[in-house]
Design goal:
Length: about 190
Amino acid sequence: MPEPSIDTLPSSARLARATACAIAVAAVLLVTIVMPAEFGRDPTGVGARLGLFRPAVETPSVEPSATGGVEADGSPLSASATPYRTDEMTLVLESGEGAEIKAAMKAGDRLVFSWTATGGAGVDVDMHGEAAGGAEGQATSYLKGEGQTAGHGAFSAPFAGNHGWFWQNLNDDPVTVTVKVSGFHEKLFRP
């Protein structure tokens, strides 16, 4: 391949004009295409007309409070000051016997639960909560059932305290109850 002659190379003035044109084209593309599509800014309005404008989405500020989970208005997000944890407990109920398992929770904290009762015709259950500092024996019932073999759901603590289940075996045979919880609770325990 022959080497180009000095006469066929562009002049310095021509190189300067080409460079200036390239910079101008790049600036126009930046303002009309890149900024609307990537940064949510459309100073010329061309990005919107081309269907490239993606307005920046403002994220609501959600801060956990000392009382637990807090939801921002209209936001599906719930933040928690309590760390996430997973617990599982099993208990065996003899005929006629009842027992509880509770989760210590702050107001607004949430958990997902699943419990099963095996070995009998089911158990009677009362899901309830006792407020921290409340009167002894005073409870708020959330759900009651008879002859249940399982329960699954999500729970948000309406107040700080201990929230959980009381199961009673009214069968002739022993029943094994296993409860699994995951969420924002301080601990799972048997009172």
